[in-house]
Amino acid sequence: MNRHTAREKAFQILFQLDVNDNKPAEAMEHFLENETKDAFLTMLVEGVARNKEEIDKMLSEKLENWSIDRIASVEKTILRIAIFEISYVEDIPDNVSINEAIELGNTYGDDNSGKFINGVLSKFVQ
Predict the structure, then answer these.
(1) In 34-72, which residue ranges form alpha helices assigned H by DSSP?
(2) Cut 0.90: pTM above it
(3) Are 108 and 117 in contact (CB under 8 A)?
(4) 3-class secondary structure per residue, the chain
(5) Which of 20, 24, 79, 126 has its CA at a distance of 20 to 30 angstroms from the CA of residue 32?
């Protein structure tokens, strides 16, 4: 599985975790069914789930005239993945994480999601 696909699947799993009260390992197993586990996917899902409170705190600190509770679940989940990559994963360039997040936002969010995500994440790499 390439990293783009892993990010997309991580987004889908983490989005479900935000709605349901499952454990990350159970959610991945259920979502992937017969697919082989991917190390990058596992790192993203478990890393975001484990560091969610700290990631949300970092996100809240960067928001201007906006609260984290007002962010739609799609954008919030995408931002969490990108912030995790930027803050915790050293071998991924920040611009790659941001571009991947924008792509996910354009695919799964509304017409303004990509711009919103870009604006928020740009504050993490200034």
Answers:
(1) 39-50, 52-62
(2) yes
(3) no
(4) CCHHHHHHHHHHHHHHHHHCCCCHHHHHHHHHCCCCCCHHHHHHHHHHHHCHHHHHHHHHHHCCCCCHHHCCHHHHHHHHHHHHHHHHCCCCCHHHHHHHHHHHHHHHCCCCHHHHHHHHHHCCCC
(5) 79
* 59 dihedral zone (left: phi>0; alpha: psi -120 to 50; beta): alpha
Task: Kindly state the tokens that stand for 45.
Answer: 């899902």
Q: State the amino acid at position 79 in one-letter form.
A: L
Q: Tokens at residue 14, please? A: 């983490």
